[in-house]
Amino acid sequence: MSNISIGIRIPTNLHKRLEVYIAETHLTKTEVILNALAQYLGASEEIPLSHRAAALEARMLELKSLVKNTSSKNISAI
Q: Which of 3, 14, 58, 67 could lock 25 by a disulfide, CB 3.0 to 4.6 Å apart?
C-alpha cells in the first residue's frame, strides 16, 4: 500500500490538545490522526494491526494513569 502525504490546518486549541495527547500516549501525530480518521470513516479494519495495537497500548497507559490519579485523590480525601 502506498502512502499519500496531505497537509491540513487545524485550530490552535485543537493542536494543543493533540500535543498533550501525543505526550501522554507516546504515539506520533501521524498515528493519532490516521487512527482518528479511520475510526471516523468506519475504516478501522484498514489500519495495520501493529498501529491498532500501539493505539490500544497507549489507551491502556492513559487509563492506568487516570485510575491511579483517581485512586490517589480518593485516598487523600479520606
A: 58
Question: How far is the C-alpha of 43 from the C-alpha of 47, rounded, in Å?
Answer: 7
Cell numbers found for residue 38: 479511520
Contact between 5 and 22 under an 8 Å Cβ cutoff? The reply is no
pLDDT band at 15 (very low <50, low <70, confident <90, very high): very high
Place of cell 490546518: 9
Cα 71 to Cα 43: distance, rounded to the nearest angstrom: 36
Domain extents for the chain?
Answer: 12-77
Of 20, 23, 31, 29, the residue nearest 56 (C-alpha): 31
More confident residue, 15 or 28: 15
pLDDT, averaged across the chain: 84
